[in-house]
Amino acid sequence: MIKFLIKGLLRDKHRSRLPLIVVAIGVMLTVLMTTWITGVLGDSINLNAKLATGHVKVITRAYRESMDQIPIDLSLTGTQALISELKKDYPTASWVERIQFGGLLDVPDENGETKSQGPFAGFGIDLFDPDSGEAERLNLSNILVKGKLPSVAGEILVSHSFAEKLGINMNDKVTFIGSTMYGGMTIVNFTVAGTIRYGIAALDRGSVIMDISDARKALDMEDACNEILGFTAVDYYDDTKATELMTSFNNENSSGNDQFAPVMIRLRDQNDLGGLIDMMSGVVGIVSFIFILVLSVVLWNAGLVGGLRRYGEVGLRLAMGEEKGHIYGSMIAESVAVGLTGSVIGVAIGLLLSYLMQQKGLDFSSAMQNATMLLPGIFRTRITPEAWYIGFIPGIIATVLGTMLSGIGIYKRQTARLFKELQLQ
Amino acid sequence: MNNAEIISVKNLTKKFPMGLGEFTALNGINLTFFKGEFAGVVGPSGSGKTTLLNIIGLLDNPSDGDATVLGNSSKDLSVRQAALIRRKHMGFIFQTYNLLPVYTVFENAEFPLLLLKMSTGERKKAVLDALEWVGLSDKVRSKPAQLSGGECQRVAIARAMVKRPEIVLADEPTANLDADNSHHILQTMEKLNKELKTTFIFATHDDKVISHLKRKITLIDGKVSRDENIKQ
User: What secondary structure does DSSP assign to B180-213, as a single string?
Assistant: First the structure.
């Protein structure tokens, strides 16, 4: 009987090909949507983590209150001891000091007069210690457009479009004008070693990277920094681990009212990233639900049309003595076969396209020239373990659900009318 | 039950709801069919022929009275038991053949045997025998779309006969066929009736069929107006 039904299924293109195409397309879109959203959100979160937030961040209590303004006067002090303590207490995570600051970059002409100047966002990072991993974390070698990475004190990197706007060439002397940690004015000369392009509009508009030792000198921040970033062992942000780390640290450092005492915050507590993380964790469920709903309606309709086409066949089978439950069961078995086959095809195509988009990516950088959020310029999919099975959920559930709904007619059919009905075919 | 008695209906009444009232399709019918009969229920449209065939075929239940088929009273049968009797002991032939278009002639004739869970070898022999009875041994691999109307109806006969049922119910089996094909089909059924002792009961108002019947039951307005044996 099974062989007989499979033969019918394979030969009747309306019963197999159309639903198969619908399921395969739906499943492919489900996989693609899941990998796309996971990839884009994951990349955004990773980018934020590497550039600004870390997986966790240690700051002072006072700094936390006005973090958006990056108040370096509220920075951590005694950071060497603090970072040693962090490395000892949480050895699986890596800890790096960062100084984020703002200022004005002045470019002089050959006479020493101001040729051009512009505001920038500055990053003091540990460039000279190869063990810090900061150059790799920020992917500096790959985003270098001109020149070289700083190798000695006094050398800086400038974002490429900012350098072009100010007319800066390699090895030009430029002047940083800003204020120190203690509120005094600071003016320091640097040499431009290279230019970089992040592909992130918010940073490409005007940013400067220098070694943290240079930043400390310029800002009068010896043994101080405004942020210590912590990265857990895994490459992606794990909210549970970050929360555990934060709770443990804050429990140990919660006593007293010192506004300069260290406090740990998670990535999700910064830059409105919490919503993004919640969206990412919910996205698989949302995408599945939407596709189950849409596919069920489409397949229900396909099932109804198929049911009308097979009205005579079902009537004949009932007249011949096949039980309603058996006919209904055989139709559901057919739908499982179609759903499974369509899902396998859809997942295969979806994964293939996802893989290509993971490798190549889609370049949206030109469309995000004025973006203020830290978003990657090239959007990529990310194939997660979920992508291998997520498509089967709408693929099979929707097909079976569609058949179950359309097949209810079998139970409502009166066998007493079969002779009449079968005469009208 | 008499050994030869295969179907008996007693005081059979069937009413259908119509508007606020009821329509009486069959009104107190008493009939007995015996094994090996070649009988027909004839009468004008709306006389209750198909309703009677539905009840005899255990597709419908009487409103009153009883129909006993192969010793089973329709009153006592569940839907599942009725389906089982149809599956094992009855064949159906319809006006419009109702062949499954995606299957071959062989597969169409094979279908009732699949429901009986027969072995492949038994099925093959039974199907080839049935197709030989109806003269379609050379069309085993053809699809219904490749056959003429007469050939399609012969496949339907083979499908009805393949499990060698006790009873074959045929509702207007020649309505879509020309005179030659009708004659040929009826000859085939007569031959099977003689050789296999299968009981054939027709519902028809086609004179071509009526001329082949050995017993003619005339229904008018849901009542038996005549029940006559015809000498051929």
Answer: HHHHHHHHHHHHHHHHH--EEEEEE--HHHHTT-
